[in-house]
Design a protein that fits this description.
- The protein is an alpha+beta fold and about 270 residues long.
- The chain folds into two domains: about 5-215 and about 225-235, Sandwich (Jelly Rolls), CATH 2.60.120; about 240-265, no CATH class.
- It contains six helices and nine strands, in the order H-E-H-E-H-E-E-E-E-E-E-E-H-H-H.
- It has a six-stranded antiparallel β-sheet.
- The longest helix is centred in the N-terminal third of the chain and has 18 residues, at about 25-45.
- It is globular.
- The chain binds 2-oxoglutaric acid.
- 2-oxoglutaric acid binds near residues 100, 132, 145, 185 and 186.
Length: about 270
């Protein structure tokens, strides 16, 4: 993706609250992710969580980075991460990485904003930026994510309220990216086939990640990650200050060279 295309996506998110990157993911990676999820679902005997938010006919698997490849390719994808960095900034973090498979007969998820538990007055600058990878086609009928365009510029929705929504229809391999303040929810699946997505969620480097990545991922596994992926899971230091340990970068715990300089030492 060239810089003009990236900028156009970032501007669409600022204006409408969302954008769709068509054909963002190579078919081979889509296939590998679908195969890995099918294997995990079997191995973990994953079942619906049976609550109003996560659904009664929806299978979710959390903390996917703990299972290594091919999930390690998701947070750093060249057609998605640069857009997220344009919305947040390059100090952004992985907030959570999970799969959301909506089975036939599931009802629509309550409309919500992903950042609505954060007690800040709205509208505010983007602090959460989330994406949904379409591992199957997403259609109005099979449960494509429902969106309320431009609602990221308002206050929070009434959780589960009734609003005019549009379906984020997209072909397999496309990715929906939205400002975490956008009102949205998973759709009802009125077809006979499953809708599968990966929810790759990011947050600003100065707020808490939704899934605790430092406890959820074994350090010996994180050591095998690329330096950028290590930063994204939380082994970097935001603007030379937030996240340091005794003025050292947490990356040094993983054996990174001792090159970190805190913001104070730069004055
Ligand atoms: O599955 C979807 O399309 C959206 C899910 C969602 O918004 C959520 O679980 O927070």
């Amino acid at each position: 993706m060239d810089d003009a295309a990236r900028q156009a996506h970032v501007e669409r998110i600022r204006r409408d609250g969302f954008t769709i990157v068509e054909n963002a993911i190579a078919p081979a990676l889509v296939d590998a992710l679908n195969a890995a999820l099918a294997r995990l679902e079997r191995d973990l005997d994953a079942k619906p969580a049976m609550n109003g938010f996560e659904g009664h006919k929806t299978v979710r698997i959390y903390n996917l980075l703990a299972y290594g490849a091919p999930f390690t390719e998701v947070p750093v994808h060249v057609n998605v991460l640069p857009i997220v960095e344009g919305v947040l900034d390059s100090g952004c973090l992985i907030s959570s990485l999970s799969s959301i498979a909506i089975d036939p007969g599931e009802v629509a998820q309550p409309i919500h904003a992903d950042d609505m538990v954060i007690p800040l007055a709205k509208p505010h600058i983007p602090i959460v930026c989330n994406s949904m990878w379409a591992l199957t086609d997403f259609t109005d009928a099979n449960g494509a994510t429902r969106l309320v365009p431009k609602s990221h510029l308002k206050e929070n929705p009434v959780y589960g309220g009734t609003y005019d929504t549009i379906a984020a229809e997209m072909r397999q391999g496309s990715v929906l990216i939205w400002d975490g303040a956008l009102w949205h929810g998973g759709g009802a699946n009125r077809t006979e086939k499953r809708r599968t997505g990966i929810a790759m969620n990011y947050c600003a480097g100065f707020i808490r990640q939704q899934e605790n990545q430092q406890l959820g991922l074994r350090p010996d596994l994180v050591k095998t990650f690329s330096p950028r992926l290590q930063e994204l899971v939380g082994y970097g230091v935001y603007r030379g200050l937030i996240g340091h340990i005794d003025k050292k970068s947490p990356a040094q715990v993983l054996g990174a060279p001792d090159g970190f300089q805190s913001i104070w030492e730069k004055t």
